[in-house]
Design brief:
The structure holds two protein chains of two kinds.
Chain A (H helix, E strand, L loop, with lengths): L3 E12 L2 E12 L3 E5 L6 H9 L8 E6 L2 E2 L5 H6 L2 E4 L11 H5 L6 E2 L2 E2 L1 H14 L15 H14 L4 E5 L7 H16 L3 E5 L3 H7 L2 E6 L2 E7 L7 H9 L23 E9 L7 E10 L4 E5 L6 H8 L6 E2 L3 E4 L2 E3 L4 H6 L2 E4 L3 H5 L6 H6 L7 E2 L2 E2 L1 H14 L16 H14 L4 E5 L7 H16 L3 E6 L2 H7 L2 E6 L2 E7 L5 H8 L8
Parallel strand pairs in A: 3-10, 3-11, 6-9, 9-10, 15-23, 15-24, 19-22, 22-23
Antiparallel strand pairs in A: 1-2, 1-4, 4-5, 7-8, 11-12, 13-14, 13-16, 13-17, 17-18, 20-21, 24-25
Chain B lengths: L4 H4 L6 H5 L3 H12 L1 H20 L7 H26 L7 H18 L4 H24 L5 H20 L9 H8 L13 H27 L7 H23 L6 H19 L1 H11 L1 H6 L4 H27 L10 H11 L11 H21 L3 H26 L2
Helix pairs in contact in B: 4-17, 5-11, 5-12, 5-15, 5-16, 5-17, 6-7, 6-8, 6-15, 7-8, 7-15, 9-15, 10-11, 12-13, 13-15, 16-17, 16-18
The chains are: A alpha/beta, B mainly alpha.
C-alpha cells in the first residue's frame, strides 16, 4: 500500500434545516477496498455525492484530497475526469440502448460527431470481458438481468479510466449468485490496482471484500476499523453503527398486555411476493406475523429487506406479484386483492413516500384528508363541503397541522405537516389496523414527537398498529413487539424486554442463513 | 416559502391605499390571488370583449350578435366541458371532432334516410356516442393503452366511418323540430313588453336562485362555525354576479330571446360544475389526475372513473354532433374538423394543466368564450381566417405561458 489515495477532511454539508454531514473524515488507502457502513440516513450517500461532485465544491465545508491534490469538482464530469466514478444504487443505464452504446454514452468513440462503430464494438467487447460478461455488445440492456446490468455499469466505469470506483449498495437488488460474482469482480479489479469504496449494510459482504471499514452515524464519521484484524467482529461493527446517545424523546407508554384468547386484529400467514419485473426474485419470502388490538408492532429492517413490499402487497396487492399467503382479520380470512377491499376491512396503509404515494400535492389539505373516506362526508354521492371542511378543520387543530387554513395546498407544507395530513386522512377513514411505513422519515424532531403521540393514542383507542421503521431507537421506544426482516424473510421476533439495538441489528444484517 | 407569495404578487396594489381602511380592495385582491388563473382568464375575457366592443363600434355587443355568439360556439363549449374532465383526469381525447361528425352522419341516416322520429333518433345518437366513448374508455382504462394513441386511432376510425355512412355526400335537411332546438329561440309568451318575456323570467329566476344559493352557502358555513368572508366582500360578489347575469339577460331578451341551446348549455354547466365540485366521482377525477398512485392507494377505483370520463366525453361529442348537424341542417363528411383541437385549446386557456388534476368546468367555458369572442370579433372587423389562426395560437401560448410563469414565481 502506497499511502492514501483519497482524504476527505472535516466535511460538513448542510441542507436547509438539516445538517446531513457534520465533520466527516475519510481516508482511503491506495489499492484497497474500503467499506462504508451506517444506518439509513447516517450520511453515506451524501458523503459520496460530495466526493463525486453531485454537490459541487463550495456547497460544503472541508477539503477533499485526491492523489495529493485538493479537488474542486463542480460537477460529476469533473470528478470523472480525475478517475472517480460512482455507481448509484438505481442504475443509470438506458434500457433500450445496447450494452456498447450504454458503456460509451456521453463518451463516444467518434470523429466530428460521427460514431465509429467498429472501434466502439471492439472496445466494448474488451471491457465486457474484463467484467466477466460474454454477452454481445449489441444486446439491449433491457434484455439482461439486473446482476449483469450492474456489471455493465462497472464496464462503463472502466471505460472512463477509473482509479477510484464507488459502489452504492451494489448488491441490494441482486440475488446471492449475482452478488457473489460482483464481489469477486471487485477483488479482481483490486488486483488490477483499482481502489474501491463500497457502501453496504451486509456485514458478511464487508468481511469478504473489504480491507477497512469506516462507520458513519448521524452524519459523523465514528471510526475506521481494519477488517482483517481479529478484534473486528461483526458485533464490533454493529455496536459502532448503533451506539448513539439516545436523545430522541418518546411519549410515556404503558406496554400493551395481550388479551388472552382474542384473535389477532391482523394476521398474515405465509405471505410470498415476487419482484414485479425480475419475477424469479422473491422480495417477500414466506412471512407470517400478527398484531393484536391495542398493540404497536414494529418491523425493523434495512433498505431492501422487503418491509414496504410486504405492506403494500397486503394492502390491495399494490406491489409485486402475489405468490401465496393469507390475510386474517379478527380470525376471519379476508380478501385484500384491491385497495377498496382492504379499506373496507378496516386496514389502512400510510406510505413511506408521501409525495408520490400519499398525497395529491396540488390539492388542498381538506380534500386530501377526505379522499379515502369521501362517503363519510357525503349523502347519495354528493359531498357536503361544509361537513368536509369541518372535518378538516378538526384535524388541523387536533393534529396541529401548521397552515393558515385547510384550503392551503398540501405541496406548500413542510414534511412534518404533510405527514400529519397523510395520517389524518387514514385516521379519518376509521381503520382497525394501521400500517405505518416510516411515519417519521424526513421530518424534524418536534414533529416526530407529535406523531409518536398520535400513534400512541391510536393504540390506546384499541387500534392495531404496525410500525415499519429503519430507526431502531424509535422502534424500541414505541413498540410492544418487534419483528426483524432481512432479504425478504422474517429473521426474528422480540418482545419489548428482549429487544436492544444490537440484537435487532444482528438479525437485520443477517443474510440468508443457508449461505453461511 | 409561502410567506413571500404576497410580496411578489403582480397585483398593482399601491402600498399607500391598502393601508387607509379601504380593506375591500385588499380583500378582493387577496381572494383573486388565491385563484389567479381563473380570475386572470376572466379578466382577459373581459378585456377581449371590451377591445372588440370598441373596435367594432359596439357591434360585438349588439343583442343579435350576442345570440349569434352563443349559437356559433355552443358545440365547442359542449366539447370543452367534456374535454376538461378528460384533461383533469390526466388524459387527452383527440377523437371528438371525428366522433362529432360520425354521430352527425348517423343522425342524418336515421332521420333523413329512414324518417325516424327525431326525439327517438336523438336518444339513439346519444347512446351511440356513449358507446363509442365507452369503447375508447375500455381500451384506455382497462387495457392501459395510452389515451393519446387510442383516441388518435378513434379520430381516424370515426372520420372514416363518417365518410362510409355518408358515401361522401352531404345529407339533409333535418326535421323541423330538431332544427328549432339547435337554431331556435325560446317561445314568446305573454304581453308585448319590448322584451322577450320568457327570457326575462328565466333570467330573473336564475338571479334569484344564485342569490339564494350564495346566502344559503354562507349560512351553512356559519352554522358549522367556519370562517366566512366579510360582509362587504360578500355583497360585492353578489352585486358583480347579479349585474353580469342581468346584462346578459337584457341583451338576449331585447332580441329574439334566449337560444334553446343556451338553456342546454346552462343545464350542462351547472350539472357538470356541481358534479366536479360536490360529487364523489368528481373528487375522484381530480384525485387520479393529481396523483394516480396516491389515489389508487386511497381506494379510488381509478379504472372505473377513467372509463366513465371517456364514456361521458363520447356522449358530449354526440350532443355536439347533433347540435352542429342540426344548426347547419346537414351532415357532412367534413363536419367537426379540428373541433378536438379547439376544445383542448379552450380547456388549457381555461386553466387546465398538461399533467392533470387541475381545472374547472367554468374554466372550460371561459376558455371557450375567449376563443369564441376572438373568432367572432375578428370576423366582424374583417380579419382573415389565416390571421385568426395565428392570433389564436398566440393567445393559447400566452395563456399557458402566463400560468407557468406565475406558478414558477410563486415557487410551488
Amino acid at each position: 500500500m502506497a499511502g492514501p489515495v483519497l482524504e476527505m477532511r472535516s466535511i460538513v454539508k448542510t441542507f436547509p434545516g438539516v445538517k446531513a454531514l457534520s465533520d466527516v473524515t475519510l481516508t482511503v488507502q491506495q489499492g484497497e477496498v474500503h467499506a462504508i457502513c451506517g444506518e439509513n440516513g447516517a450520511g453515506k450517500s451524501t458523503l459520496m455525492k460530495v466526493l463525486s461532485g453531485v454537490h459541487p465544491h463550495g456547497s460544503y465545508e472541508g477539503d477533499i484530497l485526491f492523489e495529493g491534490e485538493i479537488c474542486t469538482f463542480k460537477d460529476i464530469r469533473a470528478s470523472e475526469q480525475h478517475g472517480i466514478v460512482i455507481i448509484h444504487q438505481e442504475l443509470a443505464l438506458v434500457p433500450y440502448l445496447s450494452l456498447a452504446e450504454n458503456i460509451f454514452l456521453g463518451n463516444e468513440h467518434a470523429t466530428r460527431g460521427i460514431i465509429s462503430w467498429s472501434e466502439t464494438l471492439k472496445h466494448a467487447t474488451e471491457l465486457l470481458r474484463r467484467v466477466g460478461l460474454s454477452d454481445h455488445p449489441d444486446t439491449r440492456v433491457a434484455d439482461i438481468g439486473v446482476g449483469k446490468q450492474q456489471l455493465v455499469e462497472i464496464a462503463k466505469a472502466l471505460s472512463k479510466k477509473v482509479k477510484l470506483l464507488i459502489l452504492d449498495e451494489p448488491t441490494a437488488a441482486l440475488n446471492d449468485e449475482d452478488s457473489g460474482k460482483l464481489l469477486d469482480l471487485i477483488l479482481e479489479l483490486k488486483k488490477q490496482g483499482i481502489t474501491s469504496i463500497i457502501i453496504s449494510h451486509k456485514l458478511n459482504e464487508i468481511r469478504k471484500v473489504a480491507d477497512s471499514v469506516t462507520i458513519l452515524r448521524d452524519g459523523r464519521s465514528i471510526e475506521t476499523l481494519d477488517v482483517k484484524a481479529k478484534e473486528t467482529t461483526e458485533d464490533r461493527i454493529i455496536s459502532g453503527m448503533v451506539g448513539r446517545d439516545l436523545e430522541h424523546r418518546f411519549p410515556e407508554r404503558t406496554p400493551h398486555e395481550p388479551e388472552v384468547g382474542a384473535a389477532p386484529a391482523l394476521e398474515i400467514r405465509n405471505w410470498t411476493v415476487h419482484h414485479p419485473i425480475d419475477q424469479q426474485r422473491k422480495v417477500v419470502d414466506d412471512v407470517s406475523l400478527q398484531v393484536r388490538r391495542g398493540e404497536i408492532v414494529g418491523i425493523a429492517g434495512l433498505m431492501g429487506a422487503g418491509r414496504t413490499e410486504l405492506a403494500m402487497s397486503v394492502f390491495g396487492r399494490t406491489y409485486g406479484r402475489y405468490h401465496g399467503g393469507k390475510v386474517f382479520k379478527d380470525g376471519k380470512e379476508i380478501r385484500t386483492k384491491h385497495v377498496p377491499e382492504a379499506v373496507k376491512h378496516g386496514i389502512a396503509y400510510v406510505t413511506e413516500d408521501r409525495k408520490h404515494y400519499g398525497l395529491n400535492l396540488i390539492d388542498t389539505i381538506g380534500r386530501n384528508i377526505s379522499l379515502s373516506a369521501l362517503g363519510k362526508v357525503s349523502k347519495r354521492g354528493v359531498v357536503d363541503e361544509h361537513e368536509e371542511r369541518q372535518v378538516a378543520e378538526d384535524f388541523r387543530k387536533s393534529m396541529n397541522i401548521k397552515a393558515p387554513t385547510v384550503f392551503e395546498q398540501v405541496g406548500r407544507l413542510s414534511g412534518g405537516n404533510q405527514q400529519k395530513v397523510v395520517l389524518s386522512k387514514w385516521i379519518f377513514a376509521g381503520p382497525d389496523v394501521l400500517i405505518l411505513d416510516e411515519p417519521t422519515r424526513g421530518i424534524d424532531v418536534g414533529a416526530k414527537f407529535e406523531i409518536y403521540t398520535v400513534i400512541d393514542q391510536l393504540a390506546a383507542q384499541g387500534k392495531a398498529v404496525v410500525f415499519i421503521s429503519s430507526e431502531l431507537p424509535e422502534l424500541l421506544g414505541m413498540c410492544d413487539r418487534i419483528y426483524t426482516m432481512a432479504a425478504g424473510r422474517l429473521t426474528g421476533e422480540f418482545s419489548r424486554a428482549e429487544a436492544t439495538q444490537e440484537v435487532l441489528m444482528r438479525q437485520m444484517t443477517k443474510d440468508k442463513e443457508v449461505t453461511r | 416559502m409561502s410567506t413571500d407569495v404576497t410580496d411578489k404578487s403582480p397585483a398593482p396594489a399601491p402600498p399607500g391605499k391598502a393601508a387607509d381602511g379601504g380593506g375591500l380592495l385588499q380583500l378582493m385582491l387577496d381572494g383573486m390571488r388565491r385563484n389567479m388563473r381563473q380570475y386572470g382568464m376572466l379578466i382577459a375575457l373581459g378585456l377581449i370583449v371590451a377591445l372588440f366592443a370598441v373596435w367594432t363600434d359596439g357591434d360585438l355587443l349588439l343583442p343579435r350578435n350576442v345570440s349569434n355568439l352563443v349559437l356559433q360556439n355552443s358545440y365547442i363549449l359542449i366539447l370543452a366541458m367534456g374535454m376538461m374532465l378528460v384533461i383533469i383526469a390526466g388524459h387527452i381525447d383527440l377523437s371528438v371532432g371525428s366522433l362529432t361528425a360520425f354521430v352527425g352522419s348517423i343522425a342524418a341516416v336515421l332521420m333523413v334516410k329512414n324518417d325516424l322520429p327525431w326525439p327517438l333518433a336523438v336518444v339513439l345518437c346519444l347512446l351511440l356516442g356513449a358507446a363509442a366513448g365507452a369503447m375508447q374508455g375500455f381500451f384506455i382504462a382497462y387495457l392501459g393503452i395510452p389515451s393519446f394513441i387510442v383516441t388518435l386511432a378513434g379520430m381516424l376510425l370515426f372520420r372514416g366511418l363518417t365518410e362510409i355512412f355518408l358515401e361522401g355526400q352531404t345529407l339533409g335537411p333535418f326535421p323541423k323540430g330538431l332544427q328549432k332546438v339547435a337554431n331556435g329561440f325560446l317561445p314568446e309568451v305573454g304581453p308585448n313588453t319590448n322584451y322577450h318575456n320568457l327570457t326575462l323570467l328565466l333570467g330573473f329566476a336564475l338571479i334569484a336562485f344564485v342569490i339564494y344559493q350564495e346566502m344559503r352557502d354562507r349560512k351553512r358555513s356559519q352554522e358549522f362555525s367556519l370562517e366566512v368572508p366579510p360582509v362587504k366582500l360578500f355583497v360585492l360578489k353578489i352585486v358583480a354576479l347579479v349585474s353580469a347575469l342581468l346584462t346578459v339577460t337584457l341583451l338576449l331578451a331585447s332580441y329574439k330571446g334566449a337560444p334553446v341551446v343556451l338553456l342546454i348549455l346552462g343545464v350542462l354547466v351547472v350539472g357538470f360544475g356541481y358534479v366536479m365540485r360536490n360529487a364523489i366521482v368528481g373528487r375522484h377525477i381530480y384525485a387520479i389526475g393529481g396523483n394516480l398512485p396516491a389515489a389508487k392507494l386511497s381506494g379510488v377505483k381509478d379504472k372505473k372513473v377513467t372509463f366513465l370520463v371517456f364514456l361521458n366525453m363520447g356522449m358530449m361529442a354526440a350532443l355536439a354532433g347533433l347540435v352542429f348537424a342540426a344548426r347547419f341542417n346537414a351532415a357532412s363528411p367534413k363536419a367537426g374538423l379540428n373541433f378536438e383541437l379547439e376544445a383542448i385549446a379552450a380547456s388549457f386557456i381555461g386553466g387546465a394543466s398538461m399533467s392533470g388534476g387541475v381545472g374547472t368546468v367554468l374554466g372550460a367555458i371561459i376558455g371557450g368564450l375567449v376563443l369564441g369572442v376572438l373568432n367572432n370579433g375578428m370576423n366582424l372587423v374583417g380579419v382573415g381566417t389565416d390571421w385568426q389562426q395565428v392570433i389564436k395560437g398566440m393567445v393559447l401560448l400566452a395563456a399557458v405561458g402566463f400560468d407557468v410563469w406565475n406558478k414558477r414565481k410563486v415557487g410551488s
